[in-house]
Amino acid sequence: MPGYATRSATERDLSAIASIYSHAVEHSHATFDLEPPDLAYWTARLDGQHPGDHLLVAVTEEDDVVGYAYSWSFRPRPAYDYTRETSIYLDNSVRGQGIGRMLYPALLQTMAISGVHTAIAAVALPNPSSERLHVACGFEKVGQFAGVGWKFGQWIDMAWYQRMLVNLP
Ligand SMILES: CC(C)(COP(=O)(O)OP(=O)(O)OC[C@H]1O[C@@H](n2cnc3c(N)ncnc32)[C@H](O)[C@@H]1OP(=O)(O)O)[C@@H](O)C(=O)NCCC(=O)NCCS
User: Fold this and answer.
1) Which residue stretches, if any, does this entry annotate as coiled coil (predicted)?
2) Which domain holds residue 40?
3) Of 27, 66, 131, 149, which cross-links 156 as Cys (Cβ 3.0–4.6 Å)?
């Protein structure tokens, strides 16, 4: 996508990543976090020990971080090892321009190369851009829970999306 690129995150990116997520924690029901996590949380994602765990960023031509996507544990029990949960957040200022369509496939490709069998994503509803992004990136909606989150004084539904990665790259 002109003007933007994706690359693996480095330690220098963590404060920008934390700031993007903190804004979402405080203003959006997209995440069920109620308090922004500290930098150690992001350092753990950067240093993920599992081969299927990745943290990618979308950057401007000046290498400023405008978004990130990561894969992480779906559930801790070891038979889930080849399944990873994914997440993606962009800065408010760059949404709706196709950066999600650039960054998320890059993450899925990286996951597939590292042997991940399937990706799972939880989408708090409503979130039309996230649902569209997941479908556009080959995910299928596999279920929906009613009222599993309580944030900003209301119950929030959550949809599960799944993408098999065996046919990637
Ligand atoms: C969800 C998010 C990552 C999508 O990235 P994006 O760069 O804004 O989306 P893109 O421009 O790449 O568009 C992706 C798809 O969503 C559609 N879309 C984008 N914005 C939309 C909107 N406001 N309403 C409906 N559809 C929208 C696009 O048309 C595209 O679908 P298509 O390819 O079928 O035409 C981004 O908006 C974001 O960071 N949102 C806040 C955090 C969040 O909700 N993260 C996901 C948690 S599950």
Assistant:
1) none
2) 4-120
3) 149
Q: How far apart are CA 83 and CA 88, in angstroms?
A: 17
Q: CA 135: distance to chain centroid?
A: 14
Domains held by the chain: number: 1
Q: What is the pLDDT of residue 168?
A: 60
Q: Is 97 in the pocket of ligand 1 (CB under 6 A)?
A: yes
Question: Could you tell me the CATH number of the domain that includes residue 55?
Answer: 3.40.630.30
For residue 74, being part of any structural domain is answered with yes
> What does the pLDDT look like over 22-79, one tens digit per residue?
999 999 999 999 999 999 999 999 998 899 999 999 999 999 999 999 999 999 999 9
Residue nearest to atom 45 of ligand 1 (CA): 89
Average pLDDT, the chain: 96
Please write the tens of the pLDDT for every residue from 95-140: 999 999 999 999 999 999 999 999 999 999 999 999 999 999 999 9
Element (H, E) at 68: strand 65-73
- Asked whether residue 129 is domain-assigned, the answer is no
Please report whether residue 42 resides in a domain: yes
Contacts 24+ apart (CB under 8 A), 138-147: 138/108, 138/163, 139/163
What pLDDT is stored for residue 169 in this prediction? 53
128 lines ligand 1 (CB under 6 A): yes
